[in-house]
Design goal:
16 helices, 2 domains, 12 strands, Rossmann fold, homodimer, 16% strand, alpha/beta, 5-stranded mixed β-sheet, 419 residues
Chain lengths: 419, 419
């Protein structure tokens, strides 16, 4: 379960109320008309879980593997990676998920060196089916592990892609296993589609509970029971020119990959040219507390007042590790913590930091996960996706495209054509 | 070796030239008067290397360990961690460095579970000697591993701290091994002091070459041969209100921890109230390309024009991994890369992204490491430290303090006193 609180120093006026009502209507429309598909994933993807479970039970390649190597980048990897990092400590028995994202030769070789073909399932994920990094790394895997795609290794490769994409045709040609992504689900909103659900289910995670947490959040939202989401979106949309940066301070090491997912979701969805031709969008930044308290906090406290800060907390870490009740001569200053748990310490640091920022008049809000478990992860994902759609609607932009990344791709191709 | 290039769309006018001359003079003064100590570390820390090497040769605990567990947070861990991540692929024989930073119970227990006391050297690092996270984790280690600090485990614990600090007194009391940090070297500028050099040397890294790369950069700078540093600092200092965010896009996975070091160095040094009472400071953000091209780039390209972007490249990854010259039916679109190396691909992506941003008029600059080796790392560290001092001088702030982080510490202590 997740709960919220905020101290934004901001109140909705009539304009903001109108903006919220209009944005809410937009999302209802997008959902009802099927313009945007991710709203229904928490309800629809149960079928994928069942199918993947049945497949896992019937496939020797899945049963015998100890590692699932996910070849994908951006929206094709960040979501499953975030979920894997959060849930791993609760699910030590889950198969290892290894993400091959970056076309960095050192990175790829290091990861390849940890793989044994007989113990590996490769999942290639590309929505367009043509992502150059993904296809290149896949080819390198085919060569390195001598994958026989028409013979004995046919079960060792699965693809996830748009129906009708080049990768989809490739898969059909070899008769390999594939899962598709609904056309109306964008890459960065796809974690609860096959893109995240298939690797996570095959690894052995309880993906049904993730979906169930997400579906409850989506239902409550469309039942108009999550007003705080509208308020937060309205605050961001109407004050991003003042508070240009939203910092997420996540107080748990395992949330680091989640902050990366959030950065992509916000950055790529909200950094746009709006319908009046203005360049808009807050900048998302992810940090891990208390580590980054010893780093970025000074800038937030005393630097320019251009940041709002969101704290993500885990109430119960499900580990009772204590600060031992021992006294070490000369370093007794922190003995006030003796006998307390690290769980208490990290959360007290979160609260203390939040209070010190609020005391300076810096807009803060908090999201508390009762536990870092499957349901809370599902809720948290749905929370951020809905928040992004709402903010995009209020900014009058197309939340779901990414025209700005095309130029670089064209320049890249030209560099090699010339060469 | 590292080289630079920039396309900032900015030229120094008379005011900027004056600002540069004044800031350069400031740094010369700080160095000559010993106000700021890090300038001399590349020259002075050779003695620490020699001492640490001699100690390593004579100590059974060091010789027999396979892991060095560094207990420290912020400036006490980020530097060594960054260097370890960059150099690890070149130095597979170096002992494992494990950083215990975050008082997250799951994180601590996971790391403790990988340690065997007989094979571990613990290095406790705290400049003030009172950091609550560090002292608490150290106590937890004492309990978990039953460290006998007056008996058989005396060689297994080393401390690095300010002379005369509480931790220093604790060490003296037990007669343990300690290294001190010069008083005029701040935590975030301490990577080339004992703080970084001791763990890296004991792990087996060639720290002399790191120092030598850094000393060359410092010498060239004070010989007025690194004007680009002055120009970049002047650009940042004079236009941060327009370009409020500096994004480092590092094109190598192993540079991720370096971007965190950079974020601390900038954030904590430059986010300040200036001598006129204004809140100033650019916001540092670290990203890894090409992964984050599939994420944050859209925002940079089409969002608000409030960002400058610095690209860090590695020219030679020293890995010849190729994109195999194989044709997979239907996914031939990226076959133009066949036969090229991943090294070429990742750098071409860097160049293409840089060109596409420059084409939009976004200020960009680049830092190219010929190789991700010891000398280049030393140069890169010195480059960023000097850039930070220059920018701070031009912003008319105290670059070396961090008054904004004290409030949270006081609130934290109160929470436990009350309870």
């Amino acid at each position: 379960m997740i709960t919220y609180d905020h101290n934004l120093g901001w109140r909705a006026d009539d304009d903001a109320n109108e903006l919220m009502a209009e944005a809410f209507g937009n999302l209802v429309y997008e959902r009802e008309k099927g313009v945007v598909g991710y709203y229904n994933l928490p309800f629809d993807s149960g079928l994928i879980v069942s199918e993947a479970e049945a497949y896992a039970a019937s496939s020797d390649a899945v049963r015998n593997c100890d590692t699932i190597a996910v070849i994908g980048i951006g929206g094709s990897s960040l979501g499953a990676k975030a979920v894997d990092s959060i849930l791993r400590p609760r699910s030590p028995e889950a198969k290892r998920l290894l993400f091959l994202e970056n076309p960095d030769p050192v990175d790829i070789e290091e990861k390849f060196d940890t793989l044994q073909k007989e113990k590996t399932l490769f999942i290639v994920i590309s929505k367009s089916g043509t992502t150059v990094e993904t296809i290149s790394i896949f080819k390198a895997a085919v060569e390195r592990f001598g994958l026989d795609l028409d013979g004995e290794d046919r079960e060792r490769v699965i693809a996830i892609t748009d129906e009708g994409s080049p990768l989809c045709h490739f898969i059909d040609r070899h008769g390999l296993k594939a899962y598709t992504i609904p056309h109306n689900v964008g890459g960065r909103f796809s974690v609860l589609s096959s893109v995240g659900i298939v690797p996570l289910t095959l690894a052995g995670y309880d993906t049904r509970s993730i979906l169930s947490g997400a579906s409850e959040m989506v239902e409550r939202f469309f039942d108009a029971q999550e007003e705080h989401l509208l308020i937060k979106a309205a605050f961001i949309a109407s004050s991003w020119r003042e508070y240009r940066i939203n910092v997420v301070f996540a107080y748990a090491s395992r949330l680091e990959d989640f902050t990366k997912w959030y950065v992509q979701l916000w950055g790529e969805s909200l950094g746009k040219i709006d319908r009046c031709g203005n360049r808009v969008g807050p900048t998302p930044v992810g940090h891990i507390g208390p580590v980054d308290q010893h780093s970025f906090l000074q800038l937030v406290m005393q630097g320019p007042r251009d940041k709002s800060v969101t704290f993500i907390k885990v109430e119960d870490f499900e580990k009772s590790l204590k600060i031992p009740d021992i006294r070490l001569e000369h370093i007794e200053k922190s003995d006030y913590l003796n006998g307390h748990t690290f769980n208490e310490l990290i959360n007290a640091e979160c609260d203390a930091t939040m209070e010190s920022l609020a005391g300076e008049g810096i807009p803060v809000d908090s999201i508390t996960m009762s536990r870092a478990d499957e349901r809370s992860v599902g809720e948290l994902i749905a929370y951020y996706e809905l928040l992004t759609s709402l903010t995009g609607a209020m900014l009058h932009i197309n939340t779901y495209d990414q025209p700005g990344v095309e130029t670089g791709k064209r320049i890249l191709a030209k560099k090699f054509e010339k060469g």
